[in-house]
Amino acid sequence: MRAFDLGGKVALVTGGNGGIGLGMAEGLAAAGADLVIWGSNAEKNAAAEKKLKAHGRRVLAQRCDVADEAQVEAKFAEALQAMGRIDGCFANAGVSQARAPLAELPTKEWRRVLSVNLDGAFFTLRAAARHMAERSKAGSPGGRLVGMASSGQSTAQRAPRPTRRPRARC
């Protein structure tokens, strides 16, 4: 028995080929949703597609760089052609910065992180919102947009702490 039924629904998960994204995609598939997953690594996409198809759902794995606006629009159109609709869009793709102190972080690296984590989420959710708004105008339920973030990427690099002497405790 399922906690909830997503039969007949189609979900798009960016970064759906690993980590949190693949975990979400597996949960959606277990609840009955068909899936579109986007990732930039073809091998990981193929492995995730195989794993998700084991749930008996339709799965489309696409290589997509979410930082590329034109690519997002093209891949979204291909997904609609193949799946017919998108009912839920999970903007989960993200990258972390190179390990460097803030004072030494190159602007190019900062822009790379923002282009995937910020622009990529915007491009993806906007494409889905346009589709869902059109469907809603036609009388069909619109859908759901979900933006994801990981707190693991928000820890700042700290300066070393001074060594403390152990204290005796009674």
Question: Could you characterize what this model shows?
Answer:
The chain has four helices and five strands, in the order βαβαβαβαβ. Helix 1 packs parallel to helix 2 (42-53) and helix 3 runs parallel beside helix 4 (107-137). 41% of the residues lie in helices and 14% in strands. The chain has helices at residues 19-30, 42-53, 69-83, 107-137, and strands at residues 10-14, 34-39, 59-63, 88-91, 144-147. The protein has one domain (10-150): Rossmann fold (3-Layer(aba) Sandwich), CATH 3.40.50. Mean pLDDT is 89; it is low at 153-157. With 170 residues, the protein is of the alpha/beta class. The chain has a five-stranded parallel β-sheet with strand order 3-2-1-4-5, with helices on both faces.
Blueprint of the fold:
Blueprint: E1 10-14, H1 19-30, E2 34-39, H2 42-53, E3 59-63, H3 69-83, E4 88-91, H4 107-137, E5 144-147
Parallel strand pairs: 1-2, 1-4, 2-3, 4-5
Helix pairs in contact: 1-2, 3-4
Low-confidence stretches: 153-157
End-to-end separation in angstroms reads: 55 Å
Helix content: 40-55%
How many independent structural domains? 1
Q: How many β strands by DSSP? A: 5
Q: What summary fits the major beta sheet? A: 5 strands, parallel
Return the CATH topology: Rossmann fold
Report the oligomer.
Answer: single chain
Short note summarizing the structure:
The chain has helices spanning 19-30, 42-53, 69-83, 107-137, and strands spanning 10-14, 34-39, 59-63, 88-91, 144-147.
What features would you highlight for this structure?
170 residues; Rossmann fold; 5-stranded parallel β-sheet; 5 strands; 41% helix
